[in-house]
Specification:
Helices cover 36% and strands 25% of the residues. It is α/β, with parallel strands linked by helices. The chain has one domain: Rossmann fold. Strands 2, 3, 4, 5, 10, 14, 15 and 16 form an 8-stranded mixed sheet that branches. Strands 1, 6, 7, 8 and 9 form a 5-stranded antiparallel sheet that branches. The longest helix has 17 residues.
Length: 348
């Protein structure tokens, strides 16, 4: 049985399914799920993340970690947790920066990763650091050791519900069976206005609601309950000022039809950072930063680091310059990606 067969049978028995349920099956199904069984990152995968573009990205995050560490009072031990560490590249670059300041021994590395193939890659990348792995974020143990948490391209994987304003009202976008293939359609008219929608929205307006993010921050609050700490989330998205269909599939570095290549492509949606901010505040976190990736990396000193690398490696000047532009230019990742810093206490 293929994943298409599994989804088709499910629809035949229970009726059309929402995008959120579809994403859950395609991404996390134990037998066929994309994140359970594939190596998604890198030239041979389906996408390349910022840490894979240049060491400068991880080095800047390392500088942020040092700042957070100092704000915590330079504890003898802290938990450095990453959600979805990919190949381990980001953590490796972060630890190199920490080592340069002689604080790498203070970091107890923990990784939330359900893909066991990626775990093996992380293990080889992080030789000498003895990471601790957790299958799910709900499995992270609670203790009094301070936490510094990083998550790059993690929130975009939360399944979404999508709603469309049609002539007679709002309807949820669903997935059903057409002529032997999956196709999009609409559910019945909703009795109430969906989240993120307005009464005066025009016909054709599309709004999205990432389910699970609210409960995620509730769980995160429990993990931080008995300790102090800071968390940095970076992802592509908006500040709550955009509507539209952001549901997409990436297959071999190309956008593709989300209803094809089931379990073989990455399904994501843009993150509503205004909603993330609300959920964080509702769960007793303090917002200590909300900006674009461009502004975050520039504030951390990426331009000076690029100049330094160019001076040290003159034959790679163009390569370094291109990587810098890709990370911070407004036409590249600089504006599309946003960053939010949340803490148990304000940063002094």
């Amino acid at each position: 049985m293929s994943l298409l067969d599994k989804i088709t049978r499910h629809i035949q028995h229970t009726g059309p399914m929402g995008i959120a349920e579809f994403m859950m099956l395609c991404l996390y199904d134990d037998e066929y799920g994309y994140y359970k069984n594939h190596r998604p990152i890198g030239a041979d995968g389906d996408f390349i993340t910022a840490p894979e573009i240049s060491q400068m990205f991880g080095e800047m995050i390392g500088i942020w970690v040092i700042s957070a560490y100092q704000n915590l009072g330079a504890p003898q031990k802290f938990r450095l947790i990453e959600f979805g560490a990919g190949r381990g590249t980001l953590l490796k670059d972060v630890m190199r920066v920490l080592k340069s300041q002689n604080i790498d021994d203070a970091a107890q590395i923990e990784i939330v990763e359900s893909n066991h193939e990626l775990r093996e890659l992380q293990k080889s990348t992080l030789i000498g650091f003895a990471p601790i792995w957790h299958d799910e974020f709900v499995n992270i143990p609670k203790n009094e050791i301070p936490i510094i948490l990083i998550a790059n391209e993690f929130l975009d994987c939360f399944p979404i519900r999508q709603f469309v304003r049609l002539e007679k009202g709002w309807h949820e976008k669903l997935i059903g069976i057409g002529e032997n293939v999956l196709e999009f359609g609409f559910g019945p008219k909703l009795a109430a206005l969906p989240k993120n929608a307005n009464e005066d929205d025009k016909i054709g307006t599309i709004v999205e609601d990432a389910i699970g993010i609210e409960s995620f921050f509730a769980t995160l609050s429990e993990i931080f309950e008995n300790t102090s700490g800071h968390a940095l989330f970076i992802d592509y998205g908006h500040f709550g000022d955009e509507n539209g269909d952001s549901f997409q599939a990436l297959y071999k570095h190309q956008k593709s039809n989300p209803l094809e290549n089931l379990g073989q492509s990455d399904l994501t949606a843009h993150v509503n950072f205004a909603q993330v901010e609300q959920y964080a505040i509702a769960n007793n976190f303090v917002i200590n930063g909300l900006d674009t990736q461009r502004e975050l990396l520039i504030a951390l000193g990426i331009e000076a680091r690029a100049q330094n690398l160019m001076q040290q490696n003159p034959t790679k000047t163009q390569e370094i310059s291109n990587s810098l532009k890709r990370l911070i230019d407004q036409s590249a990742m600089g504006e599309l990606f946003k960053a939010i810093i949340i803490s148990k206490d304000p940063i002094s």
